Amino acid sequence: MSPVIATRGLTKRFRDHTAVNDLDLAVPQGVVYGFLGPNGSGKSTTMKMLLGLTQPTSGNIELFGQPLTRASRAQVLPSIGSMIEAPAGYGHLTGWENMQIVRCMLGLTDAQIERALATVRLTEHKAKLVRNYSLGMKQRLGIAMALARDPALLVLDEPTNGLDPAGIEEIRTLLVDLAGQGITVMVSSHLLDEIDKMASVLGILSAGTMIFQGTRTQLFDQSLPDLVIETTAPSEALRCVPGAVATSGGIQVSGYDKDETAALVKRLAEADVPIHEVRRVHRSLEDVFMDLTGRGGLL
Ligand SMILES: Nc1ncnc2c1ncn2[C@@H]1O[C@H](COP(=O)(O)OP(=O)(O)OP(=O)(O)O)[C@@H](O)[C@H]1O
C-alpha cells in the first residue's frame, strides 16, 4: 500500500536559512507516526507544507498517492484534519459554539460535531466558555475541530505540549484509538517520551534533516549497546581493548557487533584475562537518540 504521506526532497528555505532539508517522509496508512525533533528543527514548517499552508522551496509531496498541486489541493485537503501550533478556539465562546463555527465553515452536520466532541470526551463540557477550559481540554477541543470532518489523516503539531502526565496519557490513548480505527495520525513533539509511547513509526528531525525514519525496533537495531566485560584484571583488559574504559568490576566498550564481540573475547582469553561475564548494557530510547545525534543530544 502506498504511504498516506510521501515526500521527496522536500526543502524549505527562509532567505539563507534552510528550515527543512531534502526530506523524504513516508507515513504508512493507519499508524501513529511520531514526528520528533527539538524546537526549531522544522516540524511545523514540514506540517505546514503538507497542508498547503506554505509553499516548499523544492521537492514533491504526495498525499493519498496523489501529488499535492494547486489543482489537487481542493480534492485532497478535505480528507485531512489538522491542528498546527496553538489549539484553536475563541475563549469568549463555548466549546459548542466554537464547534459550530467549524461546522458552518466546512458544511458539516450537528451529528459530526457531537461525535467529534464525544470522541475527545468534551460532551459534558461543551456549554462551558473555552477560556475556562484547562489546557488539556483546549487541546482536546483543537483535536475535535480537526476530527469533525471525519478525516482519513490527522496532522497534529505538538498536541501534548504543556500537558500534565494525565493529560498526555489521555491524548495518547485517543490517538492510538483513532489509528486503530484506520485514521492515519501524524503527531509532532519535541519530547521523546511523549512520542515513544504512542507512535509505531518514528521520524526524527535534527536541524531540518531527517536523521532516522522507521519503527522503534529498527531504531534500536541501528544502535549497538555498549559491552561490559567483568574481570578481576581490568588493567590487562584495558591494554587488550583500545577505547575501553574502566568501570566498577570491569571494562566497558562501545560499537562492537556480534562478530567483533566474539573476536574481543577470544583476544582477552588468549591474553589470559579472566572473564567473569560479558553483557550488553540496557539502553533506553533516550540513549539511542544520544548515539544518533552524536552524544550532542536531541532534546
Ligand atoms: N516564516 C518564517 N520565516 C523565517 N524563518 C522561519 C519561518 N518559519 C520558521 N522559520 C525558522 O525555521 C526553523 C524551523 O522552524 P519550525 O517552527 O518549523 O520548527 P519546529 O521544529 O516546529 O519547532 P517548534 O517546536 O519550536 O515550533 C526555525 O529556525 C525557525 O526560526
Automatic annotation (TrEMBL):
Top-rank lineage group of the source organism: Bacteria
InterPro entries: AAA+_ATPase (IPR003593), ABC_transporter-like_ATP-bd (IPR003439), ABC_transporter-like_CS (IPR017871), P-loop_NTPase (IPR027417)
ABC transporter domain segment(s): 5-232
Keyword field: ATP-binding, Nucleotide-binding, Transport
Annotated SUPFAM superfamilies: P-loop containing nucleoside triphosphate hydrolases
GO molecular function: ATP binding; ATP hydrolysis activity
Transmembrane segments: none
Family: Belongs to the ABC transporter superfamily.
PANTHER family in UniProt: ABC TRANSPORTER, ATP-BINDING PROTEIN
Record's protein name: ABC-2 type transport system ATP-binding protein
